[in-house]
Amino acid sequence: MGALAIGDAGGPGPAMRRRLAGFAATLRMAGFAIGQAEVQDAARVLATPLGERPERLKGALQALFCSRHSDLARYGDLFDAFWRGRGAKRAAKITAHGLAARSPRKFDAGPGAGDAREALPETAYAPGPEDGAAEGRGRKGGASTQAALSGKDIRKLSSGEEREQALALAEKLARAMRARLTRRERARTSGRRIDLRSTIRHSVAHGGEPIDLKFRRRKPKPLRLVVLLDASGSMEPYTAFFTRFLHAVSLSFRESEAFLFHTRIAHVSSALRERDPTRALDRLHLMAQGIGGGTKIGECLATFNRWHARRVIHSRTCVMILSDGYDTGAPEVLETAMRNLRRRCKRIVWLNPLLGWDGYEPSAAGMRAALPFVDLFAPAHNIESLAALEPYLARI
Amino acid sequence: MTDPIPREALAAGLATAGYVADRDLATALWMMDHLKRPLLLEGEAGVGKTEVAKALARLHGCELIRMQCYEGLDAQSALYEWNYQRQLLAIKARESPGAKAAEIEAQIFSEDYLLERPLLAAIRREVSPVLLVDEVDRADEEFEAFLLELLSDFQVSIPEFGVITARTIPRVVLTSNGTRELSDALRRRCLYHYLDFPDVDREAAILLMRQPGLDAQLALQVARMVAMLRKEDLRKVPGVAETLDWAATLAGLGVEDMRQEPEIVHDTLIAILKTHEDRTRVSRQTTERLLGKVA
């Protein structure tokens, strides 16, 4: 235990520095944000009495290396594994790399997937009776007959090339939405308050007469999009497409948060901030693992309300739910959760891919319970339907 | 550092300043001094984040400069402002044919006309103060970036005036309620400590420290009761300040043993349950059930 003791007051020796760098590297691999400056400061801490005992060092480095609440729990295990050789297996699971290596399901391509990594992990999901019905409906209803790719139902895109094009379109759309929405904000004119600072600054040129009045205007709060994506089995034909759309939205909207749910809900924004789509989706899959076996929209929304809503929802937030509304939980739970959500945010948009099918009626109990609280209920089965959203978002 | 475990001395010092710190917090505070890094405190509303900065100021016998963040907070209201009224007067007073514009300009943009705002004040003190940047998550991202720049360079550039470098480096405490995700850059720059609700013993110690006349048994009972209430499904979880209020109320009503006075206990719950929903949720039966476990 006393092996951590550092003799000289001038700082830790080279061997110790190497170990420290190794520890920092381990933490970085587990997703901690640690820079060179932090490692140097850690070396300074090692030279103090705090570096004499592992227990003290643990607390000290915790303050330095952790930067959010979720880091704290993982830090303890990683520290013990690295410095005391305990629980190494558990720690290996915590680092993302460890997880990826041990993951039994690598995200291999579903049949017909253009890019191997586009598909969500095949979940152990047994389709319920309702999902069977959805499939049946799908066969009957079919999509529009338009030849244009953007009008084509995503499920019907057969070739990999077509899929790739549709995904690219989705990305482009997300970016264009963002650009147009912000330009709209800039175009607003006329200030409410006089900006004395710049008025006086400019008055010097006129010998101190404030002739040119300068105005200040309150910067409009940017619209925040909070997207909740249903990743259950019944949504499978659409999830790959929506995840890609979600990724593009996360990257281009400065203010956006993304969640994935089936039986439980996962906050996936941090994964989607990764620039590279392949890596982003890889991380997303890691985070979304282990959910499956039905869709509990109501419960997931309740969890969202309780734990996430306060942080991610502000006064100009639009919550977008991408789901087919097939809920295996009780409709009352969904109703309560929707009512609570309604109170918090500015708009709720529910995008239902099934709505684009001919003859679809929102008859599922869950969907019916949720509808009264939805501001916009729109189809999302093809690119056109997503593009149609933009004017709506611009008005919020 | 001659003291073998500096943080223990620090924790004792904080106790004399009226704050009961746990071990990790004492470590973080000590490191803050040693590494000259700001400390980011996160935790639920009411766990005593702001109190840490106040106690720190008392401990070091220095000034506490507090900056409350809000949405739309900009550099002007955080850093400095020119005294426009005086500037206008000065310009008018000098409006003679002989006056040169350059002279006027040099004069009105001098230190006499500069109004310090918290951030500028914090780096211009002779004795380094404690700078409390409260609820930094309420300010917008631009401000966060600006704050980050100040916290790494400790200098401020004023276009009309020049660069002001810090005389002393303040001890900086930032608090966040988590209404918005803070940037990674800011998080990395800061030491981090998550402040949880105090455990029963610590909360009882806080009660006894802040209300010296309080009966030790009552303090323990109140602390236990509040700890249990926090586990109930409440909309607004009671904070330490509420516990203090409640203990003061009960003591004021002459309660010595909470189990003897279930009526008073239930009626005074308004001191800690602040929404109608929570009030109805904790029924008389609930109160009695919880009191049974208070022992």
Structure described in brief:
The complex is a heterodimer of chains A (396) and B (295). Chain A is of the alpha/beta class. Chain A has helices at residues 14-29, 36-46, 54-65, 69-84, 88-94, 96-102, 129-141, 160-187, 196-203, 236-252, 269-272, 277-288, 297-312, 331-344, 365-370, 383-387, 390-395; strands at residues 193-194, 215-216, 224-230, 256-261, 265-267, 317-322, 347-352, 376-379.
Helix content of chain A: 40-55%
CATH architecture of the largest domain in chain A: 3-Layer(aba) Sandwich
Estimate the mean pLDDT confidence of chain B. 87
The domain count of chain B comes to: 3
CATH superfamily of the largest domain in chain A: von Willebrand factor, type A domain
User: With helices defined by DSSP (H or I, 4 residues minimum), what is the helix count of chain B?
Assistant: 15
**Strand residue percentage of chain A:** 5-15%
Shape of chain B: elongated
Largest sheet of chain A: 6 strands, mixed
Task: Report the order of strands and helices of chain A.
Answer: HHHHHHHHEHEEHEEHHHEHEHEHH
CATH domain class name of the largest domain in chain B: Alpha Beta
SSE class of chain A: alpha/beta
CATH superfamily (homologous) name of the largest domain in chain B: P-loop containing nucleotide triphosphate hydrolases
Give the number of helices of chain A. 17
**From the alpha-carbon coordinates, what is the Rg of chain B to the nearest angstrom?**
24 Å
Structural class of chain B: alpha/beta
Provide a descriptive summary of the structure in words.
The complex is a heterodimer of chains A (about 400) and B (about 300). Chain A is an alpha/beta fold and about 400 residues long. In chain A, about 50% of the residues lie in helices and about 10% in strands. Chain A is globular. Chain B has 3 domains: about 5-70 and about 115-195, 3-Layer(aba) Sandwich (Rossmann fold), CATH 3.40.50; about 80-115, no CATH class; about 200-290. The interface of A and B includes residues 45, 50, 66 and 310 of A.
